[in-house]
Design goal:
The structure holds two protein chains of two kinds.
Chain A: E1 5-9, H1 13-26, E2 31-34, H2 37-43, E3 50-55, H3 63-72, E4 79-83, H4 88-96, E5 101-104, H5 109-128
Chain B: H1 2-61, E1 65-69, E2 75-78, H2 80-90, H3 100-103, H4 108-122, E3 127-133, E4 141-151, E5 158-166, H5 168-224, H6 232-258, E6 264-266, H7 268-278, H8 280-285, E7 289-294, E8 301-303, H9 305-326, E9 332-339, E10 343-350, H10 378-387, E11 392-395, E12 403-409
Parallel strand pairs in B: 7-9
Antiparallel strand pairs in B: 1-2, 1-5, 3-4, 4-5, 6-8, 9-10, 10-12, 11-12
Helix pairs in contact in B: 5-6, 7-9, 9-10
Classes of the chains: A alpha/beta, B alpha+beta.
Chain lengths: 129, 413
Amino acid sequence: MQPPKIYIVDDNDSVCYALKFLFDSSFNIPVEIYHSPLQFLDDYDAQWRGCLIIDLFLPFMDGLELLDNLRQRNNRIPVILMTGHGDKTMQLQARAKGASFFFSKPFNIDNLLKKIAEILTLENANNIV
Amino acid sequence: MAKAAIVADRDNAKNISIAQQQQLKKNEQIIAGLRHELAALKVENSALHEQNLRLDRLFQASQEARAALDPTFNFIAFNQSFIKAAATIFDVSLCLGMNFSSLLMQAPSCKTRILSSCYQALAGVNSSILIENATGAGDYYCYELHISSNLNPLTKLKELHLSIHDCSRYKLQEFQARKQQAEIERVGRSNVMGELISALAHEINQPLTAIKAFSRGCLLKLKRDSSISALAYPLTQIAHQSEHAGNILHRMKNFMRDGSMYLEKTDINALIRQTLSFLDYEFSQFKVAINLELADNLPELSVDRIKIMQVILNLGRNSIEAFQTSATLRPTIKIKTECLEKDMVIHFQDNGPGIPANLRDKILSSYFTTKPQGTGLGLSICKTLVNAHGGSLQSLTSLEGAWFTVSLPLEVN
């Protein structure tokens, strides 16, 4: 069983490092950053645990495609999808494809942190059991 | 001898009757001739009459409204089209003999113009008058009234010829075409701008997210370690920046939608100083010196602050980039404000590489950029923002560096 980590997949540098800084300050678990979904899929292992944060608009493939891919690989990590272009249809599609949660940028930081805390606690609980 | 007398008498009588007969014959010939002429005249008259009727029918059926007035402005002829036009314009049923100037009492707005044109025509100068109903009361119409004069060869009197041309449909079409043109331009503009705003929104969301996450992270760190209270200042700046970014987006969207401007009475010098503080980090990073020559006692100007700030920020960033590409020694930006008779002018000068004369006009138009990564929209957007205030953004000749002026009118329209 892998130790839990927060994985961020977003091609925007600033957003990635800002989120990493935020999570480092709020949680005690490692944060891994990926700018390319291809690189992420290369490294991905179904044994990974923790929380996955993906941006909808990525180079080479969009977030929804990535979700499909992960589903095929029997992904068990909860996925949070974020985007600068949020709309209802997008949201429903994301949920349908297996995203646990959906946030529109610029999102409410408190809500994001709360959600991640929930996910990590649940994961922990599951792992203990 | 009586017989001779009788014969002589008889001869005389014969002679008389021969003369009479000859005369009679002559008379008959004349009469026949006259009859002939009369018949021919009757035929001619009939033909003329027919032609007259034909011409009258043609005249009456003509789409062009025409009428004739005698020198005292009484109607001596008019056709159906003229009757209709007169009914519309002057609200009157025409009949021959009516006086035109008394009819004009019904239309006081054009009475003077028309009467003076009539007198001019009598003096030999023809003219046209436009009569338009653009008030919205009743249907729109637009007529062109031509007034000319003509000498009647028989009466030797000058007659006035009026003709009315209905250009309502043409004018309406022209109006529609102009409206369509404006609409097409607006859609074209908004399509470009629409895409731009979408792209802009997406772009701005990214730094806003980063800003928020960084600042919250800082605050959390502060909670654990009060020794780094120095973070309070950068955090405040971050908060202001994200606020500013959000406002830009909001205001741009509104401006795009309906050209709305949020005008506030502003101290321009203070606005300039505030905007420059946003560029503090970049100025210090590239060691840019700022030289301010802000005039004292400037009147407050009614401006949309965010828009003017955008312009100054854009000019500032352009200068910084120019300094970078040409590695200017001792880069300096000079900003001067002055109040002229009708405008306030902000002068923005730098000692960078400047703008080549042949590019000076182009650089303010859409899509033109000399920057490798540039989208070329910065200066043209600035131009739009300044124009929206009734002002102008210009690029001037300068011995050294770039020189832009932002003129803003003192009086708001």
